[in-house]
Amino acid sequence: MPVQFLVMGGILVVVGFCVDATVGIASGTLSALLVRGPAAQRWLNRVSAAIFGALAVRLVADR
C-alpha cells in the first residue's frame, strides 16, 4: 500500500512538471512574439481594455 502511494505521487510530480514546463515554454514563445512588434502590443492593449471594460460593466450591473 505505501509503495502505491509513492508511485502515484511520483507520477503526479512528473506529469505536473511536464505540464508546467509546456506552459512555461509556450508562454515564453508567445511573449517573445508579442513584444516583437508594436502592432501586436496595440492589439494586446485593446483586448485587455475590452476585458477590463466588460468586467467594469458587469461590476456596475451587479450592484
TrEMBL record:
- Residue ranges crossing the lipid bilayer per the database entry: 6-31, 43-61
Q: Which UniProt keywords apply?
A: Membrane, Transmembrane, Transmembrane helix
Q: Does the keyword Transmembrane helix apply?
A: yes
Domain of life (superkingdom): Bacteria
UniProt protein name: LysE type translocator
Organism of origin: Actinophytocola glycyrrhizae
Upper lineage ranks? Bacteria, Bacillati, Actinomycetota, Actinomycetes, Pseudonocardiales
